[in-house]
Automatic annotation (TrEMBL):
Organism: Kribbella shirazensis
Molecular function in Gene Ontology: glycosyltransferase activity
The UniProt record lists the keyword Translocase: no
Protein name: DUF2029 domain-containing protein
Family (UniProt): Belongs to the MptA/B family.
Membrane topology: Multi-pass membrane protein
Main localisation: membrane
Compartment(s) of residence: Membrane
InterPro entries in alphabetical order: MptA/B-like
Transmembrane feature ranges: 45-64, 160-181, 193-214, 234-261, 273-294, 314-331, 343-361, 367-386, 407-425, 431-450
Domain of life, per lineage: Bacteria
Gene Ontology CC entries for this record: membrane
UniProt keyword Transmembrane helix present: yes
Keywords, ordered alphabetically: Glycosyltransferase, Membrane, Transferase, Transmembrane, Transmembrane helix
Length: 467
């Protein structure tokens, strides 16, 4: 256990084993009969081991970071593979979204339009683990994952196998991130080893990406690859890949900010606007073409408000809106209270769009990564919905934006917290004892690790090299 490689693997194995008890699975799944799943003491044992395993992974990651920043060269990609392997066959961690992906693919295979109907029109095992909140809602995802899910569903309707197929997309996303980040870092004067540690080996990316099988990771991998391709001079290809990223989830298309900066480095606003128009047009054309070729279409644009049904505390707009609504309701202004949240959310969206426009026209090639990272962070914080794994969107871009000690420490702290606290998810909704116990465990494990953040040294800057 002195070796961070071994410590991380042991942590991942413990997390995978605990997921057999804590994760929501279809009643028909091979996991469902496990006895510990069906009693409160058994679930508490599972949650205890889950938090402990995540703590081991976070501890190992922090140890590796200290050694990398001291100049030691470690096999970071091999560590990533070893830490990820135990999670490949495990049930989805922390979230039930992967079961929704499986059901939405089944909708496509059965000839339904997933942008008109929800998984509730289906019956059988395929919808057993879908969150009831999303049973009647249309899919807010792009055509790529839905078309892929439909193809796999033609081969099998087993929800567990369909979930594993979507996990393969997350694996592909991490592979793309692992390819792109070491190429982006030197161009932004950042040590590739530090950037790779901060992003690729990050336990938040591994557990929320591969473990939870979120398609956000594929979006992120395509967006990072688009930026890396732009740095090699392949702007057209980069814009096409950016369109593919948007065809997974729309925020991935914001990487065109970086592509435009590479197309017209140190140019004036007129040329920058022209570059944005060209890159944006190619990306939009790619997005529309993917929808047409897959037969899924672009109806998902009308379902982008579906995630907003969750009033997430990670969204600043939600927090302000809910506070304003509560105050107005207390004052007896019921009509205004009902409208307050929607108005504040609208203001947040407008503010995010304004910031994105500002970043698009002012970012240069050397600040392109930071511009994309800040733009994606604005979408998360000011948007109508945000989950803990949404913060992965800005992680690679901020990590290669010459972060320095303060930003590196912030990124590390957020990653540690969102890794260890991940079990406090919607599957614990209303379960008071598990929530309180898990919170106490998270605090007990996270605080000692956060206390060691001051030992991290500033990320070293390296000379610019060819991407």
């Amino acid at each position: 256990m002195r070796s961070p490689m071994v410590r991380g693997v042991v942590g991942a194995v413990v997390v995978a084993a605990a997921s057999l008890v804590t994760s929501v699975v279809p009643a028909s799944s091979w996991v469902a009969p496990i006895a510990l799943r069906h009693s409160l003491p058994g679930r508490m044992v599972g949650l205890t081991f889950m938090v402990a395993g995540l703590g081991l992974m976070a501890w190992a990651w922090l140890t590796v970071g200290r050694r990398v920043m001291a100049g030691e060269r470690l096999p970071l990609l091999r560590m990533t593979a070893c830490w990820s392997a135990p999670l490949l066959l495990a049930p989805p961690l922390f979230s039930r979204d992967a079961w929704s992906y499986a059901a939405q693919g089944a909708l496509v295979a059965e000839g339904y339009n997933p942008y008109d109907v929800g998984p509730g029109v289906l019956s059988g095992h395929i919808i057993e683990a879908v969150d009831p909140m999303w049973m009647q809602t249309p899919a807010p995802y792009g055509p790529l994952p839905l078309a892929y899910g439909g193809l796999v569903a033609h081969l099998t309707m087993d929800p567990y196998l369909l979930m594993l197929a979507h996990r393969l997309l997350a694996v592909l996303g991490i592979v793309l991130i692992a390819w792109a980040v070491p190429r982006l870092a030197p161009a932004c004067r950042v040590d590739p080893a530090i950037a790779t540690w901060l992003v690729v080996l990050n336990p938040m990316l591994i557990t929320h990406g591969i473990g939870a099988a979120h398609n956000d990771v594929l979006m992120l991998g395509l967006a990072c690859s688009a930026f890396a391709l732009a740095l090699t001079g392949h702007w057209g290809t980069a814009a096409v890949v950016a369109g593919a990223a948007a065809a997974v989830k729309l925020p991935g298309g914001l990487v065109v900010i970086a592509i435009a900066a590479v197309m017209s480095p140190l140019a004036g606003r007129v040329l920058r606007f022209a570059s944005l128009a060209i890159a944006g047009a190619v990306s939009v054309l790619t997005l529309v073409t993917i929808g047409a070729l897959t037969g899924v279409g672009s109806g998902w644009l009308g379902a982008l408000d579906v995630p907003g049904l969750v009033r997430s505390p990670f969204s600043l707009a939600n927090l302000i809106g809910m506070a304003a609504s509560g105050v107005l309701g207390w004052l007896g202004e019921d009509t205004a209270a009902e409208q307050a949240l929607q108005i504040v959310r609208l203001v947040g969206i407008v503010a995010a769009l304004g910031l994105i426009a500002y970043l698009s026209l002012r970012s240069s090639i050397h600040y392109a990564a930071r511009a994309v990272g800040v733009a994606l962070l604005a979408v998360v914080v000011l948007g109508p919905s945000a989950h803990d794994w949404y913060f992965l969107w800005c992680l690679p871009f901020l990590a290669v934006a010459r972060p320095g000690r303060r930003l590196t420490t912030i990124i590390t702290a957020v990653s540690l917290i969102f890794t260890i606290a991940a079990p406090l998810n919607s599957s614990l909704r209303g379960a008071t004892i598990p929530i309180l116990t898990t919170t106490a465990l998270v605090i007990a494990i996270a605080l000692p690790l956060l206390n060691h953040l001051r030992t991290l040294q500033p990320a070293r800057k390296v000379p610019v090299t060819a991407a």
